[in-house]
Amino acid sequence: MAARRLGGSSWQQAVSLSRRCCLPGRAREHYRCSSSSTALGKTVDNSEVTQEEIVLPRRKTWDKLAVLQTLASTVRRDPTAAHYMFQDDPYLMPKNAASSRLFALSKESGRNVAKYIIKQFPQYFDKISAEPDVPCLMPEFLTPQIEGVSEEALKERIHLRMVKESVDLFDQLVQAGTPVSLETTNSLLDLLCFYGDAESTPEKEEEIKEDLEEPGVNVAEQKAPKRQIQRGSQSSGSRWRENNNAERIFKIMPERNAHSYCTMIRGMVKHGAFAKAYDMYIDLLNERHKADVHTFNALITAAPYLKERFLERWELAKNGLPCENIPDQRTPWTEVFLNHMAQQKVQPNLLTFNAVLKTLRRCGGVGRSMSLLVIKEMEALDIEPSLATYDHLLFIFYRGAELFPSSILSEVLDDVENRSFTPQDPDDANFFATAMQACCDLKDIKLAYRLNKAMEKGDNWKFLDMDRLNAYWSKFFSLLCMMEQIDVVLKWYKEAFSSLFYPTPKNILDLLQALDAGNHLEAIPSVWEDVKQLGFSRRQDLLEELLSLMSRDQHPEEVQLAFAKCAEDIKAAHEQTGREQAPLEWTGSALGHVALLFSRAGRTQDAWNMMERFQKINRIPTEQVMDEFLNCAKQTSCPDEAIKLVKLAASLGLPSAEKLKSRTEKEFELSEEQRKTLESIKSDSDSSDSDSDSDSDRD
């Protein structure tokens, strides 16, 4: 035991130290006394030994989801599985983007219906029992518990977001002469300004979202509808009514503070009353109050709707009030940035800079010249950008006919790909779709790969909901089809199809073009199966492209048989009818392609049935189709089919009828009867010429 304590490696010393920590009281004390030694192995008196202090580490407090997060990190995405949202009911698994959106909306509608039922009929849900009883998981009481006319009852109804009841109770208190505290009145104003003086219902929230100009914008950051064209005017879609309850209560308030003004300003901006919001801001300044940072953010967002010229919009956002000229760009930026915030000593935050960039999106060339200065100011104030910051920046530089170099996008990705973001701005969710669109416009596949890697880092993927996920992958896949080798394209297609996104018709067309460029047309039958699953089997442009590629060249027998099977499905799709479906209209090119595919696969009768449709639908086949069909008849040594083809060409009055007739005489071994039949065939043009000759002779 003593020999083990004297020498040995540092690892052995660490083990020895850990054992000392585990010994009970007296044994540990005895161990400490007997273990004193020197590096040479000589013992010394215990009185001369300085006892080593052992500090035990504090217990680490783990997150409640730590175990689940650790387990989740060991599992990878299954490329064959659908999105987790749709795995509750395999029977209703969506097959395309439209049905997936309908599925998601249906689930959300079901939740809203359940909330409505519970709110409207609370008497049927008064018995709440659960084992074990978890208070945080129990439903909240949605009915008022305080009766009578009092300020406490008003506070409860405001907390329950009962807009109409809160206003009625406030009016009763005022009529009874009962004073209402400033804090409670401000809470009522908050409620009215948030919901636009209307009842808080799921339908109301959905209506507010539908009027937003861009997807993903929170209701608190609502923009003006597109129809608004006059300065400071309200459109027909505005939610702010003239002399509504919020304005009425604000006017009768005996006392108003900065919170009262700021609430009204933010509510007016949110619901489209931009001119009124700026008038209210002037009143706030006249009353010697100071606006908070959130109010400034709202006013900056509203600036583009109060001015028509780009420079005036930027001046209004920067200075708060109109100015004569923009300061020289060489002036230090901190001296001219948002003067009113600096005068009132309001510290800007991330949302302030994002609001400025959102305003610059509507300022044309002024936005491009000023946006980079805004980013530099953020760096000077040590404010870390969010995804919304980069989204606004990319929108400014990569929208429209003029595309700037990819250096800006590359610098943005240098920061994004090293971070795992958390939501800080409602516009954060738009970044990845905007960035992928910029990659497509620049046709830069390397930047797209970097962006996709950044999207998969940490929890960044959570910023993409179903609609944005489909848009993001649709653009990424189109870029892959344009820039990558066919093997890489097919690999991404197999991994992403139906598990990450649902291809659009444009994606399928891009894939077909990539298969054509990569000389990989034998994969078309598998693509056709996906087209049927996606519900695109009646898309005329897709069918034309598929038939054109399959019938353009001759392929091995196995491939031709597969192509003929696809042609049969396309023929069935044309003829399919239903209660809400009319049969597709045949085009001359589609008929010719299907006939060729049948003939090359040896299905002669099916091919002739398609050729005969030209007369029924009054379509004219191309000369290439007629030549190809004659070649197929020659390969199968069928002179009767060749004679039928000549008859068809003659009946349709094709100029190539004589050419086909001469080829049949030279290239086929005809019997005497077949030769007579062939010689008796005359085209409509010949008969018309003979008629005109007889008429001239008669004259």
3D architecture notes:
The chain is an all-alpha fold. The chain has a domain at 1-48. Helix content is 59%, strand content 0%. It has 35 helices and no strands. The protein has helices spanning 2-6, 10-22, 25-34, 66-73, 97-120, 151-159, 163-175, 182-195, 202-210, 245-252, 258-270, 274-286, 293-302, 310-319, 333-336, 339-343, 350-360, 364-380, 387-397, 407-416, 431-442, 445-455, 466-483, 486-496, 505-517, 524-534, 540-552, 557-575, 588-600, 604-616, 623-635, 639-651, 657-667, 672-679, 684-698. It is elongated, with a radius of gyration of 39 Å. The model is unreliable at 1-47, 205-238, 320-337 and 684-699 (pLDDT under 50).
Keywords:
elongated, 35 helices, single chain, disordered C terminus, about 700 residues, disordered N terminus, mainly alpha
Secondary structure layout plus pairing:
Blueprint: H1 2-6, H2 10-22, H3 25-34, H4 66-73, H5 97-120, H6 151-159, H7 163-175, H8 182-195, H9 202-210, H10 245-252, H11 258-270, H12 274-286, H13 293-302, H14 310-319, H15 333-336, H16 339-343, H17 350-360, H18 364-380, H19 387-397, H20 407-416, H21 431-442, H22 445-455, H23 466-483, H24 486-496, H25 505-517, H26 524-534, H27 540-552, H28 557-575, H29 588-600, H30 604-616, H31 623-635, H32 639-651, H33 657-667, H34 672-679, H35 684-698
* β-strand number: 0
In percent, how much strand structure appears in the residues? Answer: under 5%
Mind summarizing the main beta sheet?
none
Radius of gyration: 39 Å
The overall pLDDT average reads: 77
Low-pLDDT stretches are: 1-47, 205-238, 320-337, 684-699
Q: Please work out how many helical segments DSSP would assign.
A: 35
User: Roughly how much helix do the residues carry, as a percent range?
Assistant: 55-70%
What is the rounded distance between the termini?
138 Å
Which geometry do the CA atoms define?
Answer: elongated
- Secondary-structure-based class equals mainly alpha
